[in-house]
Amino acid sequence: MDFIDLPQMVSASGSVTLPGSKSISNRVLLLAALAQGETELRALLDSDDTARMREALVALGVEMSAAGEGGLRVKGCGGRFPTRQAALFLGNAGTAFRSLTAVLAFADGEYVLKGVPRMHERPIGDLIDALKACGANIGYLEKEGFPPLSICPAVIRPGSVVKIRGDVSSQFLSGLLMALPLAGARVTVEVDGELISKPYVDMTLNLMARFGVTVEREGWRAFSIPTGARYRSPGVFQVEGDASSASYFLALGAIGASAGKPVRVEGVGKDAIQGDVRFADALVAMGATVEVGDNWISAARPADGKPLRGIHLDCNPIPDAAMTLAVAALFAQGETTLANIASWRVKETDRIAAMAAELRKLNVRVEEGVDFLKIIPPDAAYPLQPAVIDTYDDHRMAMCFSLASFGVPLRIRDPGCVSKTFPDYFDRFNAVVQPAPVIAIDGPTASGKGAVSSRVAQALGFHYLDSGALYRLAALAAREAGVDWADEAGVATIAAGLDVAFHAGDVRLNGREAGRAIRDEEISSGASKVAALPAVREALLFRLRAFHRAPGLVGDGRDLGAVVFPGARLKVYLTASPAVRAERRTRQLLERNEPANLCAVQADLEARDARDRARSAAPLKQETDALLLDTDHLGIDEAVAQILDWFAARN
Ligand code: DC
Predict the structure, then answer these.
(1) CA 385, 391, 393: angle at the middle one, nearest 5?
(2) Peptide bond preceding 7: is omega within 30 degrees of 0, i.e. cis?
(3) Closest ligand 1 atom to the C-alpha of 555?
(4) Where do the H-state alpha helices sit in 403-487?
């Protein structure tokens, strides 16, 4: 699927068992592979990034086997990979690329490391310089300072003191630290410049200790690996739930859950070793209700009933989870500034630029700097607008923007990119959010759908969508542009670019009133012709779905229940016999002082019905889950009352 459409959500609640932490999974896979003895890794993340690491380790000769309930048994190679020559492909997995580069530098073999094009744009020179200072023999295969790399056996210089920059990516230091026990000699690493993302280095040290290597350290400035340090399997290792993945659900709770029914994540809690659990503190600073248990965290809206508050935050310790705050900020009062986020620029994409560009599509005011992002939440002058969001092959862009659906319907392109760390994210997301309700009323022409639907909408205080009007507008716009109604690509282009506005019964095309023109008999017939063209239907789909807003929507058309709003809370098939419909339409025309002949009207209406029913794209039919309402003997009031009754019974 190349997009997912999200309607406006109205609330969230429920519980989510988190997938395993990516950062921990890829580190322990490597440590278990290097250790002496066999390790059973439990609750390991199964995603693109961990798959790349596993494939690489298998290519290096490490044996792995399934160990019940999603576990993995890894046979450690005691510090020497069995395979001494290999070409490894690591996709866009930064954690795998950096740590394997460091480890293979001391592995006594010949290796080539490659990734996707974006991986080849992510700098690695600082790590390579540090490794070379220890005696590593590494070459750049394309551009100096960037992957792909070739690695030959190192000539270790015992007692080396190497410097590594700490202000580009903490993964450099983490990779180096994990590799040094393989050097077989005492090496000291000194950090140059301020170390960013310290919690990730803490995690590395913690995991190395669990695998038997204690690093001597002087604060965040210097780290030494004692001579003779060796990794030993801890036997069984339980991976924590992913704290970065938790951030989306905790933010959902803070935006849309009541305190009595929060959103709860299972798998991380009080004793988590991942820095991103501190995302919860940021939510507290925004006023959210947060509780932390041994192995869970829950979040809900502020307990005082007030809105969330914007914050100014140094995001250095939580670079990944901080992205979630950029979208949560739309639901806060007052602006939010995310500072110290320069590392975003060298991640899966330039995340500062990407975040700013996509927020602007939603009509959000954003200021971006080299290392900060300021978000000004929407207000009456700058309301959120539905938009199609690009994700830049960045899982976190897709997951972050799903939260914006609490403000406005949106389309997210390439949602499958979440498989990098959270393959079933959107299923879990849909399980905890409740969309605004929809009543979809489909039926043939002149069945009274329009009158009934708008009255139902009015009674409930919901929005009303006359979906046929969009097909009519497409036909009218095509006619005005001189495009033939049979020209599928031509009409689809026009449909995609329609400049239309609906205001309290007023319909405008290109700024001009068009309400009457689209009801013209010829345009009606054109509408039914262009509506049969699949490319035109596709071009209008998101436009129709963009009407799915809080507090709810009543829409009428032909395929609203089947295609546009398949999850509608109530689907109605509203019809009447051709004779009754022809009579109603004739009366309508005469009331508007337009010429009308009953027989001609009935023939025309039956021809249009036939075309709507026979077309291959979204034909008119009663869905199995739609309730039939035959209005041959029902007045408008009775039809409205019936639909309101049905809807009440569904709530
Ligand atoms: O409901 P209406 O008569 O205004 O619709 C005009 C045309 O648009 C009609 O021929 C069928 C088509 N249509 C459609 O194909 N799908 C919809 N959801 C709504 C209308």
Answers:
(1) 175
(2) no
(3) 18
(4) 425-432, 449-460, 467-481
| Residue of minimum CA distance from atom 14 in ligand 1 | 558
pLDDT value of residue 1:
57
What tokens does 540 get? Answer: 């209008």
R_g over Cα of the chain: 30
Residue 120 Cα to ligand 1 midpoint, Å, equals 50
Q: In the prediction, which pLDDT does 424 show? A: 96
Which residue's CA is the nearest one to ligand 1's atom 16? Answer: 558
Measure 296 CA to ligand 1 centroid, in angstroms. Answer: 49
Using an 8 Å Cβ cutoff, are 333 and 368 in contact? no
Q: What tokens does 534 get? A: 């699949």
Contact indicator for 468, 557 with CB cutoff of 8 Å: yes
**DSSP bridge partners of 389:** 412
**Nearest CA-CA partner of 615 in 481, 471, 484, 494:** 471
CA of residue 94 to ligand 1 center, whole Å: 50
Pocket of ligand 1 (CB under 6 A): 445, 467-468, 471-472, 527-528, 531, 557-560, 608, 612
Q: Is the separation of the CB atoms in 265 and 297 below 8 Å?
A: yes
pTM assigned to the model: 0.91
Substitution site in 558, 571, 585, 606 for ligand 1 pocket (most atoms within 8 Å of beta carbon): 558
Which residues are within 8 A (CB) of 442 and not within 5 positions of it... i.e. 6 or more apart? 449, 556, 557, 558, 559, 560, 561, 562, 571, 572, 573, 574, 620, 622, 623, 626
Of 158-167, 200-209, 400-409, 546-555, give the lowest mean pLDDT range: 158-167
646 Cα–ligand 1 center, Å: 24
CB 345 within 8 A of CB 319: no
Encode pLDDT of 273-314 as tens digits.
999 999 999 999 999 999 999 999 999 999 999 999 999 999
Of 358, 423, 420, 368, the residue nearest 393 (C-alpha): 420
**Ligand 1 probe mutation, 441, 470, 471, most atoms within 8 A of CB:** 471
Q: Which of 438, 467, 529, 547 to mutate to test the pocket of ligand 1 (most atoms within 8 A of CB)?
A: 467
Helices 467-481, 534-545: inter-axial angle, 10-degree rounding? 130
Q: Which two tokens stand for residue 553?
A: 């929507």
- Asked about 371 being catalytic, the answer comes back as no
The whole-angstrom separation of Cα 53 and Cα 55 is: 6
The pLDDT of residue 446: 87
In angstroms, what CA-CA distances link 600 with 7, 520, 609? Answer: 41, 15, 14
In the chain, the percentage of residues whose pLDDT exceeds 90 is: 87
Q: Which among 320, 466, 604, 612 is annotated as catalytic? A: 320
Residues 164-193: what's their mean pLDDT? 91
Report which residue type is found at 569: R
**Nearest protein Cα to ligand 1, atom 13:** 468
